[in-house]
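Internal ticket - ligand job 214, zinc ion:
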Amino acid sequence: MALPSDRAPLAERVEELLAAGGPLPIVSAGDPVLRHGTEPFDGQLEPALLARFVEALRVTMHAAPGVGVAAPQVGVELRIAVIEDPAPVPDEVRLVRGRVPQPFRVLVNPAYEPVGDGRAAFFEGCLSVPGWQAVVARHASVRLTGQDEHGRAVDEVFTGWPARIVQHETDHLDGLLYLDRAELRSLSSNEAMAERWAQPTPVEASAALGFQLP
Ligand code: ZN
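stdout (structure tokens):
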């Protein structure tokens, strides 16, 4: 449990970050803040400051652009992330990857557990590892629990691409990067992705680069 005197530094840090306005700088891999894990949100930010922080995360995600940002990616060790995916992809990709639009959501103190045994393996990337993508086999469906930004309980099943997004962002809050779970032989630059691996599935990449798919 945090004492009130422990709460000031985090709130001050967030105030400092927000003072500049606009998108927040995104921390890159190699910064320990991405590896520390986070403390559960328990009112460390007053409601008005939490609302401003969430809005700044949303602006940062849109500017990147990305489909999710976790607080440690802007240097804040709190268990908070935002997600949103307009899913601007061709129908063929949408069908195979389950990449359906995901409306804006705030995840506070999220945790996930698998629903069923299904696995889905696709290329993904991370705003904190710019320029690269790799294949990650993840649970095809997860049950996400936690709260929203108003403190209301969340208990919801995510499938398809939204399931991938919530696993990726929740992992950030535990100090994990997608590379920790990736098939490292699949690691591909954005240039290689555009030139070679734009197919809806990573089957061709798996054969050519020599990595396993589930
Ligand atoms: Zn990420």
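Auto-summary: The mean pLDDT is 95. Helices lie at 4-19, 47-63, 91-97, 160-173, 190-196, 203-209.
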